[in-house]
Design goal:
This protein is mostly helical. Helix content is about 55%, strand content about 0%.
Length: about 130
């Protein structure tokens, strides 16, 4: 959930790099939210799917931004996103790009987020851990 919120905080940031975890957790939570909104729409008998449409429009820019940052993480420019326009093969190739690991070290898009960022955690260290680390 923290990765999802991190992407939303960087709403329209197209520069820099995004780790695989950031990209895939955002995709996972977006799919879950879409399913939940679809179920709610079915319960309230919303034939137009307006809830899903509003959600889709709300996350359009963050989705594009995190995808571009993910491409930057593997050393590709944002133009590689257009692979999805090639039927079948483009989608498969794009999926492979989203799955492969980050380029080690820095690249022209910035430092490797795996090496420079601390893990995202909402749990503060326990007092025992703080005493052991001193």
């Amino acid at each position: 959930m923290n990765y999802y919120l991190a992407v939303l905080k960087k709403y329209a940031v197209f520069s820099g790099r995004a780790r695989r975890a950031e990209y895939w957790y955002f995709v996972l939570f977006s799919i879950i939210a879409s399913i939940v909104l679809g179920i709610i729409g079915a319960i309230i008998r919303d034939k137009s799917g307006i809830l899903s449409i509003i959600y889709g429009l709300a996350i359009l820019i963050p989705t594009l931004a995190v995808t571009v940052r993910r491409l930057h993480d593997i050393g590709k420019s944002c133009w590689w996103w257009f692979l999805v326009l090639i039927p079948i093969i483009g989608w498969i190739w794009f999926l492979v790009l989203m799955i492969i690991d980050s380029n080690p070290g820095d690249n022209k898009y910035g430092p490797n987020p795996k090496m420079s960022a601390e893990p995202i955690s909402s749990v503060p260290p326990q007092p025992e851990q703080q005493m052991n680390s001193q």
